[in-house]
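Morning!

This is the sequence you dropped in the shared folder:
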Amino acid sequence: MLLISCPNCGSRDETEFHYGGQAHVAYPENPNELNDREWAEFLFYRDNTKGAFAERWLHSTGCRQWFNMLRDTVSYEIQAIYPMGAPRPDAAAPARESGTASLAADSTTTGTAAPSTATTSIAGSTSSASTTAPEGATK
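The structure's back. Tokens below.
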């Protein structure tokens, strides 16, 4: 579970927030001049960065304000939280505010691999072969 620091309300559970997509996506200057492919690219094509990624978030059950977050998509570490309209902070700079991610094996928000089933008994199975899920597999 992520602990997100709302700029207005302080630290809150991630269930109070809604993800709003990639931050800093500029609206087309002349949208009427775009062809269908260009319009579709603006609407649907987004970066899928592995590492630091700028996102928009809404504190939907709190102050109902939008803000930007720089978050590592691999470790879920929140590197910075900054207001809408502000430029993206440097990912290498020290984090102004931080969040945490649960490292519990049963957490679905951390992206951890499924727990090992090597010691789990399967009814009717006489095989001694390991049934450990491959790395990155999900339940």
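Headline: Residues 36-44 form the longest helix (9 residues).

More detail when I'm at my desk.
O.
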